[in-house]
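By convention, each integer encodes one residue's backbone shape. The lines below illustrate.
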Amino acid sequence: MFFSKTAVATTVLSLLQLSAAAPAAEKKAEAKAQSGAEMSIKDSGSFTWYNPSVGYGACGWWNSDNDLVAALNNEQFDPQTPNGNPNRNPLCGRRIRVWSNGRSVDVTLVDRCPQCNWGDLDLSPAAFRALGDQNVGRLWGDWQWI
């Protein structure tokens, strides 16, 4: 079988470009995921409620208990915090759709929840009531970035 030098060189060059492009594409996808730009996977967890009106949240905003807001668990919030300043976290202000008990509510991320586990959210009373009875104290369900 006879191959021209040009055909062999072209094939080798193409393979080298593909092998170099794959890690770069993986790193870009990983960086986007870490920056919060492409967080579309559903998470599951428990939902509790807190009073955001007691003070400024981790994002540096004050909210009332009637606002549809949430605090994200520190395991998912903290890695996005640049230079230890949560006010500059790119997740602040992101919208989240929360489902529980056959209901859903859209909330804005304004705080972090240090006592929450991965996948858990702490909701304002208004957001919690949109999903169930506030007296229950804890609900389980799914949520997703929107």
Q: What stands out?
A: The longest strand covers residues 103-113.
